[in-house]
Write a structure and sequence with these properties.
By secondary structure, the chain is of the alpha+beta class. It folds into 2 domains: 11-203, no CATH class; 291-367 and 381-429, Histidine kinase-like ATPase, C-terminal domain (Heat Shock Protein 90), CATH 3.30.565.10. It is built from 14 helices and 5 strands. The chain has helices at residues 18-26, 28-39, 41-50, 55-63, 70-91, 98-112, 116-128, 133-153, 163-245, 249-278, 294-303, 321-341, 383-393, 416-426; strands at 308-314, 347-353, 357-364, 397-402, 408-415. It has a 5-stranded mixed sheet with strand order 1-2-3-5-4. Helix 3 packs across helix 5 and helix 8 packs antiparallel against helix 9 (163-245). The two termini are 16 Å apart. Residues 216-280 form the Signal transduction histidine kinase subgroup 3 dimerisation and phosphoacceptor domain. GO terms for molecular function: kinase activity. It catalyses: ATP + protein L-histidine = ADP + protein N-phospho-L-histidine.
């Protein structure tokens, strides 16, 4: 698919229970903020009304009703609700807009003597914004001044004296939360740095692997050019000379076939070398052989002296390019093996066009008993293995083995529908 964007589905449509755990983990910070905002609401309300009076408390006592009247109760409930609501709402923005919570905490401390929100505000800022050290130092100084203001310079500050409550509250709502926040923030920063370092090392490993692959591809291309291309070029030159100087027409025709085949092999080899040297996975731009080119391929083998029979069943039709190339390469490899291991034996090539699959069969008759072979043909052992991998990539199956009489058969069945789907998805990459 062209779009790599991951679409998130609602958690109720995911598989239970593993997916719900992942959904909750991805949103754990937001859930924690809401839990703090709701769970600490009573603490903010009670502490706003029950701690030492601040300037706004004194102003409310002077302006508003006093005593135990209903009006006084409503005024103090409004103060409690307003202060607690302000802190709870600011808690929801403690990781995105930390200045909001810090400002509300300082206002409640200086206005109503409620110093407990200072602890949450400083902890949040130190744990999430540890890199802003200057701002953290400024806000810490502001909070210390607020505590000194509450318990030193505000009249009626609880009757505790001056130094003891100031030191105790400073340790309780500033020193402990600030230390804990710095520890959590440092640990979070360390973990993030380790993750970044691991990702960087992984990228570097991929780059080193790509460089090694490109170097190996260049070396392979150089070796193929120096050895294979050189010898094939010599073969073409000798075949051309033989074609010109041959006295018999049959010898000249055979030499011409060798020269033409060698030139085609050189052209395909140059394309492969170009792909290897460029380091690009794209296929050669030249037209690749398809099933329609089997007539020319079989004609070449017949000219070389191999008796080949070609049968087609079903309704021949155009197939996906990938399947066409796979079928051609299979017949080409099977004919090469037959010519190498059973020279002169009759070979049958059969294509069966079905509704849902394509059947390709290449079979040769047994080799006549001519005694021991002094020089067996060279074989790498990778022909059938590579062919089996090619057929498997097309979604098909390959079987190869001898007949009871000594013959040999290679048979492949490739689904047409699967090949069509793959070619539509990845046709641009072929």
């Amino acid at each position: 698919m062209g779009d790599d964007t991951v679409q998130r589905r609602p958690f109720w449509r995911e598989e239970w229970p593993p997916r719900i755990g992942g959904w909750l983990w991805d949103r754990r910070h937001g859930i924690a903020d809401w839990a703090l905002a709701i769970g600490l609401f009573p603490l903010w309300a009670v502490s706003t009304a029950g701690l030492p009076d601040g300037p706004l408390d004194t102003l409310a006592n002077k302006v508003g009703p006093t005593g135990s009247s209903v009006e006084a109760t409503l005024v103090w409930m409004a103060i409690m609700f307003t202060g607690a609501t302000a802190v709870s709402v600011a808690t929801l923005f403690r990781r995105s807009r930390p200045a909001v919570l810090l400002t509300v905490a300082a206002a409640l401390a200086c206005g109503f003597g409620n110093s407990f929100p200072i602890a949450l505000a400083l902890y949040s800022y130190a744990s999430w914004f540890i890199h802003r050290r200057r701002s953290l130092a400024v806000w810490t100084a502001v909070m210390v001044l607020c505590v000194i203001w509450i318990y030193t310079y505000v009249p009626g500050g609880g009757g505790w004296g001056m130094a003891p409550p100031t030191i105790m509250v400073t340790i309780l709502v500033i020193a402990f939360p600030l230390t804990a926040g710095l520890w959590v923030g440092t640990r979070r920063q360390l973990v993030a740095n380790l993750h970044e370092r691991a990702e960087r090392l992984e990228r570097e490993q991929h780059l080193l692997a790509e460089q090694a692959i490109n170097g190996e591809r260049t070396r392979i291309a150089r070796e193929m050019h120096d050895i294979v291309a050189h010898r094939v070029s010599l073969m073409v030159l000798h075949a051309g000379g033989l074609e010109v100087s041959a006295a018999e027409p049959k010898t000249a025709d055979t030499a011409g076939l060798i020269r033409t085949t060698g030139r085609e092999a050189l052209a395909e080899l140059r394309e492969i070398l170009g792909v290897l040297r460029s380091g690009d996975d794209a296929a050669p731009t030249a037209p690749q052989p398809v099933l329609a080119d089997l007539a020319r391929l079989i004609g070449q083998w017949r000219t070389a002296g191999m008796p080949v029979e070609w049968e087609t069943t079903g309704t021949p039709r155009a197939l996906p390019p990938r399947l066409e190339r796979t079928g051609y390469r299979m017949v080409q490899e099977a004919l090469t093996n037959a010519g190498k291991h059973a020279p002169g034996c009759p070979v049958t090539v059969r294509l069966g066009y079905g509704d849902r699959d394509l059947e390709i069969v290449v079979a040769n008759e047994p080799l006549p008993d001519i005694g021991p072979i002094t020089e067996p043909p060279p074989a790498s052992g990778y022909g059938l293995a590579g062919l089996r991998e090619r057929i498997a990539l097309a979604g098909g199956t390959l079987s190869a083995g001898p007949f009871p009489d000594g013959g040999w058969q290679v048979r492949a069945i490739v689904p047409i529908d699967g090949a069509a789907d793959e070619d539509e998805d990845g046709g641009a990459a072929q």
